[in-house]
């Protein structure tokens, strides 16, 4: 008994350690890290080098649910209200209508290629319909890909909120198949309302409870993050027990807790980062161990065909239809369509038919596993290249070298560090504001007080205390005054304009075609109106032969700098003959009508 326990501990800890160390290789060769975790499980499994036999689907389903709840709570915790507000409607469209469209389209090749009825094919479509929050969040946040604010927010909110719909569809179709299709439409509608209504209410109540507990109970610093995650799992379990969506509830709870100004937020974030990594590793390892590669050959061709339809037809069609009303351009829509990675959620849902004892139960799992391998391999490996091709990567603006939130009760200050560049305003003698006196200066690997260091010199690193909303002002003082690099200049324009400039001044100075009725508008007001949505860094609007580009935003989400590109840039030039925007479709219809009238 003792030897078995020790062997189990050795095996589990060894696999986790191997997954962690394999991340070093993953970063070097550019492989999607979650794919690496999945492959470690395969290699350690029954048909791999490890030879570990694991076929407990109930245990795998339990582990996957708990891990996914942890990941979704962290996803909500790291999603700002600003991002959620900017992307709520398009993301909700993708998380609802998008899931239905994907389910219906994927069902067609499944029905045509496999011995599945239409109901069974729809079940496979529902299993594959959800994008994976872990994969999307990792690639967009940890993978170093900095895309436009609205696009990134849409992808993150969608990936965190579409799981409940996919789970609801999967469970409903499993119930229909188990009962021979006898479930009534009224019952399905009642379950739908209960799932999402109860889940949302429990999530909001639970999020408020977590904030109250963390701020009022006075937990010891090390216990606070444990209290938060345990309460999050209580929210998850309570919503499920009341026939609501636990995944929706835990995501909403995380969203509320992460934006409510809790005590010691940096301690919380660091703990959750580590716990979320552990949850991802354990979940992907478990799912990898559950798979048997020797079974893959029977479904390999069908899985590739289904994956092709999912990646190149179902997801793009669903994204285009859902984003059409919200003013996304062609390249933005194409990028959102490509970042539809499938991952642990699809594999986890494919276990449900096995747990329910359905016919073809194992087939769902094998097919879903192969689809996930193709998706993570193809889409995950190419996401950076596709983002650059479609002009979605925003050049990184010069900012703090380090930025640390201070966990001092009643104080909202950060410690920020800047490396002094030779042609910055500070290096040329510009005085720092009184509220931003350096507390420490590092010069030639030695530290000095601000008084002892004297005038800041190129190569110094200055540490300052500042309120978060004032950091953008410091960015401008410490930034290089040299002309921007070519890529930066192309993206943000040839020179900057003050957002309070009136459109009349712009029309007179540059001879731009500004309507007389717009003369009284400021540049920022005109850009926001033309965008038709909340502005984000990198958003651009054409005006005659030039482009106006949002260069930076203040702490209160107000445009603080607008770039002017003398010639329209290449970034929003359509790269694909698909995904026409709303305005392009309107123009096409008008042309067709004119041709018909002629």
From TrEMBL:
Location(s), subcellular: Cell membrane
GO cellular component assignments: plasma membrane
Domain Transporter-associated: 488-568
Superkingdom field: Bacteria
Keywords, sorted A to Z: Antiport, Cell membrane, Ion transport, Membrane, Transmembrane, Transmembrane helix, Transport
MF terms in GO: antiporter activity
GO terms (BP aspect): proton transmembrane transport
Transmembrane segments: 6-27, 34-53, 59-77, 89-110, 122-144, 196-215, 245-262, 274-291, 303-323, 335-358, 364-387
PANTHER family membership: K(+)_H(+) ANTIPORTER NHAP2, NA(+)/H(+) ANTIPORTER 1
Membrane disposition: Multi-pass membrane protein
Pfam families reported for this sequence: CorC_HlyC, Na_H_Exchanger
Protein name in UniProt: Potassium/proton antiporter
Source species: Paramagnetospirillum kuznetsovii
NCBIfam families with a match to the protein in the record: PRK05326.1-1 (NF003714), PRK05326.1-2 (NF003715), PRK05326.1-3 (NF003716)
Main location: membrane
